[in-house]
Design a protein that fits this description.
heterodimer; A: alpha/beta; Rossmann fold; 2 domains; seven-stranded mixed β-sheet; B: alpha/beta; six-stranded parallel β-sheet; two-stranded antiparallel sheet; 8 strands; globular
């Protein structure tokens, strides 16, 4: 066992998988220098420039060239620096990667991972703060994962690299050095797909993913002292989605709160709420609640505004109290 | 880096083309597409259909001059490239019909042919969106240390897309084994290239990225063969990408529903004189390699293959509805 931060868990996964699979390569902007968040620190020295590729600043071709490589016997793991920079690559992700196996009638697969740091709370303002999971999870053919712990970060990245289909791996940049955990030494994977119950309680159910799942768990621990006992479901994977776990968690308490950092309208919370409404309606004791960022087009730079916008542990706790009292 | 299993390389084509074979391929493409147009009129083919008639020399010459295992990554007007690569005409026609016997099981249709077994990496209808993919295929070959290259066909409509520029830059800076072939037929759908491009000589744009670029008469199949053969070898030697601009002309509309108000009938007529099939036929007649009887025989052969393709397509059942969710991912999920 060793104490690892979230970003160290990611780096360890990359290095261990590169050791394991000679056809794996990492590519992205500035990654020979370690990358914008230093996820690939030391990899150039260890694996050389043929396997650690600095690309031009051109996201569409970073993803496009990865698709071509993946089709042709390689295992590319691309890094896009910020979720906000992923839009130029959306054509490749949506029009090509997602359809690759389907359109070729299984003639070709696309075993590719695209790592994308997302999320706010670091005063990144409008081009360095976004959450983009709803747009990507909307696209059949892509897998979308958002681990919330260093343990899952490592295990799910390894699973993503070994997956035969394209996986979008969304990592919250505020989690990188904030979250630490004792991790087992050596190889393990965490499967893509299954959600995980982080906490079991009978009063209310909180459903979240990514860094917000961590915040929800912290809020739930606080509320336990007040006598409110919450179930916390960490989805971990948005596509393919663990619908059964959502339904079971909602049924357990009859009161569901969904929390995400992405903005409210058209956010992934709407999908979760619909699943609960369709499959757990008879067990509900309260309307399904959503806590998300308000609908503004850009994260304001001003710290007070950003703090006001983001779901915080306090806001989550308030929403939980409110729902428990319903 | 020979760490991955690799099939033995295919033989390099001869430096001199087999004229009869080129003629046979062009006749097949022509007749196949005429049949496709008939089937469209009969309602057997739905949606969009973009005919390649007039441009046969480009695909025929280029694909014949490439190694059979070189990747073909084409644009949406790709029936000719598919047939030139040797995809089964029946399976191609069945794909146009949307039937289960099609090369993509009826899922792709006319613009999205695909055959992994022939290294035919498909037609793509997001213009220029396939260029980074071709670069990736090439990068993997470079990494594996093979001599296999990718032929990336684009149209003149692709040259103002961002991915055109990203891909040329990437291919140049990494010296990727990609031969870009731009089929410049002067019209992006109904828009004259001169109205939308600041620089109309496409090869000059490639030169701006330090890429060796040439122009070739795309109505002359032997010129296409010669240029492709020579440039493909250059790419194969690891000297980086090459860009070939093939000047050509499509005789039919952009698609089946094109009234062609944007070009004068005289212009079409001037280009029809340069019909690539007629040019090669005349050359072979002059050289005593072909006579009327033999030419009629080749035409009949193409007609028979196209007719058989239609029969195969028509007899092929539609895809089972139960297959709808197959291959969204490798493991089926009915979500």
């Amino acid at each position: 066992m060793a104490l690892k931060t979230y970003i160290e868990a990611i780096r360890d996964a990359l290095i261990e998988e590169m050791d394991r699979a000679p056809n794996m390569l990492v590519l992205g902007e500035d990654i020979q220098e370690g990358g914008v968040f230093r996820a690939t620190d030391g990899m150039l020295e260890r694996f050389g420039p043929q396997r650690v590729l600095d690309t031009p600043l051109a996201e569409s071709s970073i993803v496009g060239v990865s698709i071509g490589m993946a089709t042709n016997g390689c295992l590319p793991v691309a890094e896009l620096q910020f979720a906000d920079f992923a839009y130029p690559a959306f054509n490749q992700l949506i029009s090509e990667a997602a359809r690759w196996r389907y359109r070729s009638y299984n003639g070709w697969g696309c075993p590719m991972v695209v790592r994308i740091p997302y999320g706010a709370g670091i005063r990144g303002a409008m081009y360095h703060s976004q959450s983009i999971e709803a747009m990507l999870a909307h696209v059949p053919g892509l897998k979308v994962v958002m681990p919330s712990t260093p343990y899952d970060a490592k295990g799910m990245l390894k699973a993503a690299i070994r997956d035969p289909d394209p996986v979008i791996y969304l990592e919250h940049k505020r989690a990188y050095r904030m979250l630490k955990e004792e991790l087992p030494d050596g190889d393990y994977t965490v499967p893509i797909g299954p959600a995980r119950l982080r906490r079991e309680g009978d009063d209310i159910t909180v459903i979240s993913y990514g860094l917000m799942a961590h915040e929800c768990l912290q809020a739930a621990e606080e509320l336990a002292a007040e006598g409110i006992d919450a179930t916390v479901l960490d989805l971990r994977t948005l596509a393919p989605l663990d619908r059964d776990a959502i339904v079971a968690a909602a049924r357990r308490t009859g009161k569901a709160l969904i929390v995400h950092e992405d903005n409210l309208t058209g956010g992934f919370g709407g999908e979760i709420a619909a699943i609960i409404a369709e499959h757990a309606f008879d067990d509900l004791d309260a309307p399904v609640r959503r806590l998300a960022t308000p609908d503004v087009p850009a994260m304001p730079f001003n710290g007070a505004l950003e703090d006001f916008l983001l779901p915080s542990r306090e806001k989550i706790a308030d929403a939980m109290r409110d729902l428990a009292a319903y | 880096m020979a760490r991955m299993t690799e099939t033995p390389p295919a033989a390099r084509p001869p430096s001199q083309p087999d004229r009869r074979s080129l003629l046979r391929t062009m006749l097949l493409i022509r007749r196949f597409e005429e049949k496709a147009a008939e089937m469209y009129a009969k309602g057997k083919i739905h949606g969009f259909l973009h005919l390649y008639i007039g441009q046969e020399a480009v695909a025929t010459g280029a694909v014949a001059a490439a190694r059979p295992d070189d990747y073909i990554v084409s644009h949406y007007r790709e029936h000719g490239h598919a047939l030139a690569r040797g995809l089964d005409p029946g399976a191609v026609m069945a794909e146009l019909f949307g039937r289960s016997g099609g090369v993509s099981g009826g899922r792709g249709g006319a613009m999205h042919l695909f055959d992994a077994s022939k290294s035919f990496m498909g037609g793509y209808a997001i213009v220029a969106g396939h260029m980074p993919l071709a670069c990736g295929l090439g990068l993997a070959e470079q990494y594996k240390g093979t001599q296999r290259i990718a032929l990336n066909f684009i149209g003149d409509g692709a040259v103002n897309e961002g991915e055109f520029h990203e891909s040329l830059n990437l291919a140049a800076v990494w010296k990727l084994p990609v031969l870009f072939i731009c089929e410049n037929n002067f019209y992006g759908m109904g828009t004259d290239v001169r109205r939308v491009s600041a620089v109309i000589e496409v090869y000059k744009r490639a030169e701006a990225y330090g890429i060796h670029a040439e122009q070739v008469d795309g109505m002359d199949v032997e010129a296409m063969y010669e240029a492709t053969h020579r440039l493909a070898e250059r790419v194969r030697r690891g000297e980086g990408p090459v860009f070939l601009e093939a000047i050509c002309y499509r005789f039919r509309g952009h698609s089946m529903s094109d009234p062609e108000f944007y070009r004068h009938k005289d212009e079409v007529q001037r280009w029809r004189v340069l019909d690539p099939i007629e040019q090669l036929r005349a050359r072979m007649f002059d050289a005593g390699e072909l006579d009327d009887a033999r030419f009629a025989e080749l035409q009949h052969e193409a007609d028979a293959i196209a007719g058989e393709a239609v029969r195969f397509a028509d007899a092929s059942p539609p895809p089972e509805i139960s297959t709808l969710h197959d291959f969204v991912y490798k493991e089926r999920s009915d979500a």
